[in-house]
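Hey L., structure's done. Input below.
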Amino acid sequence: MSVDTAPVGSATPAAASPKVPLRQWLAVIAVATATFAMVTVESLPVGLLTAISGGLGVSEGLAGLTVTLPGLLAAISAPVLPILIRRLDRRLVLLSLLAVMLAATLTSALAPNFGVMLASRVFVGIAIGGFWALAASVAVRLVPERHIPRATSLAFGGATAANVMGAPAATLIGGLTDWRIAFGVVAALGALVAVALYALLPKLPATTIVSPRTLLAQLRNPAVRAAVTATFLLVGAHWAAYTFISPILQQTSGLDATLIGPAQLAFGVAGILGTVVAGSAAARDPRRALIGAGVLLAASLALFPLAGATPAGGLVLLVLWGLAFGGVPVGVQSWIFKAAPEAAEAATALNTSMFNLAIAAGAAVGGVVVSATGTTGVLWIGAAFGAVAGLAVWATGRSLAK
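Output:
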């Protein structure tokens, strides 16, 4: 059974014309802004853990569950939700998930105790996983086929921008005022995004339904299997090392602690640029775009202990690292659309689940490696994962060409 994706550009009759109407691009931008809000909500507690733990009377370690729990729930909901929604209009589903996120974030802002806070974060995780499973496939239904890579890069660019601007801005708001106000501000952003999606998205009826058989069938597709594997390895490689970026920059590169924040901003800006560049490259050859991102990521991490031993060298490699990782999501997703056009939603759901699992697994493996060998070890481990991912994509492409 095939997945419920209508032919690209079928959302409106105008999509078939050579020139895409502005309203359709505004709809894509609205989807990107929604991903921006979702990712900001997911990572919001990271910079506010101390304030949250103090305000709710729990340890910082326990407060860390507000970050890890949504990630685990997102990994579960990503493949499950497409099965449950069956033939529901995807526009309605996205709006409903935004409403869940909005209600959960408001509940977080008003939580009288840690139990209520943690319960609200469970619903945040469910909303994030479901939204991510649908967002990319919805975005590409709004434009003609030749604009799919650009629409994909815009959709994922919203997530990258959240890491660069959304989470830091919310942390700043919480630091200047109160952590509850930061949650309230992000909830207000979610409400505005919901209004924009309601006004701009056309009806997006399902054509067929996703079943467990559909999901399992994607794992038998060599290209999809390689793409999902590449996601796990590349995202895991990134988070294994990036979780410890502050000690890496200080201990390996000798960067002053006051410059860590600006350095991370440079990384984020490079990530946005990498998303744009990879989107353009994927329009020509998504497989090569993904291989390029993997090779650059592996090289950046491998060279860090050597060429990154000075502040200047560390910053250059950090920017290259950002460029590489920014290209990973759009490269993988573009290849999935090409490898499984009739089952894009099911394949995307699997990839979204693997993405969230990789974040948790990468951070966990990184912690073990850093404890045993120090920051240099985690850089080498990340480089090895990146190289294996590139080889997997290359080998799969060769086998499919035969």
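The domain at 13-200 is CATH 1.20.1250.20 (Growth Hormone; Chain: A;). Residues 1-17 have pLDDT under 50 and may be disordered.

-- N.
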